[in-house]
Amino acid sequence: TAGVVTLGESMAALGSPAPGPLRHAPHLTLSIAGAESNVAIGVRRLGHPSAWIGRVGADEFGRMVLERLRAEQVDVSAARTDPAAPTGLLVKEQRTPDVTRVQYYRSGSAGSRLCPDDLAAPGSPAARLIADAAVLHVTGITPLLSPTAADAVRHAVGLAAAAGVPVSLDVNHRTALGTPAQLRAALLPLLPQVTQLFAGEEELLLLADAEDEAEAVNRLRDAVPELVVKRGADGATLHTAAGVLRQPAVPVRAVDPVGAGDAFTAGYLAGLLDGSTPAERLRLACLTGAFAVSVASDWSGLPTRDELRLLTAPPGTTLR
Ligand code: ADP
Ligand code: KDG
To answer: Could you tell me the residue ranges of all domains in the chain?
Structure first.
């Protein structure tokens, strides 16, 4: 199969090298960002195929996004270069050691111009990838980028459902991109097709329009076979028809929370492709999430299979 196939926007990412206001930073680091491409990288590092579908601009940032993904062996054969708009940009400021501020420069970007035509023609590379996927993974970020991007997500989910491909959805509410009402309007129609739903505790209430978690779980549990609630340093919970599974977080020195959710999702989906049990998938997800928070980068700290046991090594361990 094509493994985990995902679509969304990947951007250039500028980051500050040390805490403080960004305007005083002597230089910036340059990398790529994008929740969906992070998941694709994470799954690939764990040994399963993955593919990313989206648009980049005909510029150096766009070439960088595609090169980084190719270097990670993510299939970008269905990604498009759009000559009419620039690649989006994300700026990540480490304002204090504990507070990260993210600023987007992505409105009107190439990535936001994603449209159903990018996946449309049966037999097109994107349509083929989705039909061959083991899982299609989408997030609540993409539908809030533009009306055409929202259509593209709906279309992709429809293609997957028609081919019997499971659909994974991470709510990933980015307040800068839309209101809770807009997010709900974009995601609720997808839920009948969704097989794995990932949400933080607040996102769960928001999506279910509920006062408390029990009520939210009650409303959503019947709609989706696997409902996974991410709880940061408190680990995660999986709700299925069989009941509730709880997994504590792996204790690590957390240096950067950004990207933890994507790493977690990558671990969970890789576990699904491994054919492992729900409890094993949840454990792997918490382990990969912990890897991500222990490194000051959204995705570069994602583990390979043989690195998974590193996190349980005692502090000060040297491996020779
Ligand atoms: P998101 O990045 O989507 O907000 P979370 O912050 O809940 O998601 O993180 C996702 C997962 O990563 C958590 O469920 C947990 O397993 C792991 N994780 C997050 N923060 C920590 C932490 N401080 N220590 C260990 N694991 C963590
Ligand atoms: O999930 C980490 C993301 O925040 C990041 O890589 C960028 O996709 C991104 C976004 O829209 O915030």
So the answer is: 4-8+35-86+111-304
- DSSP codes of every residue in 194-261: -SEEEEEHHHHHHHHT-SSHHHHHHHHHTT-SEEEEE-GGG-EEEEETTEEEEEPPPP---S--TTHH
**What is d(CA 109, CA 94) in angstroms, rounded to the nearest whole number?**
24
Measured between alpha carbons, how far is 292 from 301 in angstroms, rounded to an integer?
Answer: 6
Mean pLDDT, all residues of the chain: 95
Q: What is the mean pLDDT of residues 96-125?
A: 91
Spatial distance between the Cα atoms of 121 and 215, rounded to a whole number of angstroms: 41
Confidence of residue 57 (pLDDT cuts 50, 70, 90): very high
Mean pLDDT along residues 58-76: 98
Buried b (16+ CB within 10 A) or exposed e, 98-135: eebeeebebeebbbbbbbbebbeeeeebbbbbbbebbb
Question: What CATH superfamily is the domain 4-8+35-86+111-304?
Answer: Ribokinase (3.40.1190.20)
Residues whose beta carbon lies within 6 Å of some atom of ligand 1: 200, 230-233, 235-236, 249-250, 252, 254, 257, 260-261, 264, 286, 289-290, 293
Question: Please, where are the H alpha helices in 46-179?
Answer: 60-71, 125-132, 147-162
- Both structure tokens of 230: 């991410």
Is 298 close to ligand 2, i.e. is its CB under 6 Å away? yes
Residues labelled as active-site residues: 262
Q: Does ipTM surpass 0.90 in this model? A: yes
Q: What is the Cα–Cα distance from 214 to 205, expressed in whole angstroms?
A: 9
CA of 289 to the centre of ligand 1 (A): 5
Q: Which of 174, 177, 183 to mutate to test the pocket of ligand 2 (most atoms within 8 A of CB)?
A: 174
